[in-house]
Amino acid sequence: MNSILKQISITDIEGFSIGQAENTEAGTGVTVILAPHGACTGIDIRGGGPASRESGLLNPLASNDAVHAVVLSGGSAFGLDSATGVMRYLEEKNIGFETGYGVVPIVCASCLFDLGVGRRDIRPDAAMGYTACLNAPNFKEGNHGAGTGASVGKAGRADQAMKSGIGAAAFQAGDLKVGAIVAVNAMGDVYDPSDGRKLAGMISDDGTLQASCEEALFAMQNSITLKEHTNTTIGAILTNGKFNKTELTKIAGMGHDGYARTIYPVHTKWDGDSLYAMSYGTIASDLNIAGTLGAKAVAAAIDNAVLHTESAYGLKCAEDFQ
Q: In the predicted model, is pLDDT for residue 217 greater than 90?
């Protein structure tokens, strides 16, 4: 690693607390990024099938500049209900936007599709969102939280996909800290950008990782057979740098470069790829530096998500191919 950069833990970034809850049998879960003092937040949505809540507030033209939690959840659009439990937890702590009639917590949420593993009739709900808050801080990579039912490499048959999960990475340059948490549920394959090695994704008929989701996609030119909106990689960049909502929207956009470095193909209509950028702090920094660090952290978090995952629900994991 460049000597200018220091690798740190995602939990070293002040102002945030990460909580998780999951139902292992059902194959789904919730990851909550709590920002009790409020965090200015932007979002960039690149995929064609997002499931999201309160995204409109993150438009730079909207008046809101403080978000109190971001929820990453399984359960497809059903999982948006988990944000209700997060709101209840924050209201009990008197955390939220003061209206004069009580506080209104600002909670944004994005969900991935994991109904194809475990049990489709059990999804993250308000109770699970509340529990994730109670569990904070308890962040773990792999088959936890929003990554519990995540999978990758879904351009072929269901038995060719692999287990994925949730991952994180963070870096420090001087006083600036930038990190990312990503739940990886991509249609595409995941690669190591440092050497181009495939880490997880579509399994070949001979049981190797030689298959390619890109090649499978090209072969569908005359017959598209994939199910729409059944994937989605969701995540958040966290920083102690001081940025406004417009700048954070740009940082989130630059962070998507981390998706593109590791996931092939990415940002398709079958994915709802979304990335938040959350700022809590007073460290003055250049937008370009923070965005570049954000992309680096996102790429590393995606690789960590598949490398820290265990096989489950009949799906092999990266470790099975080491």
A: no
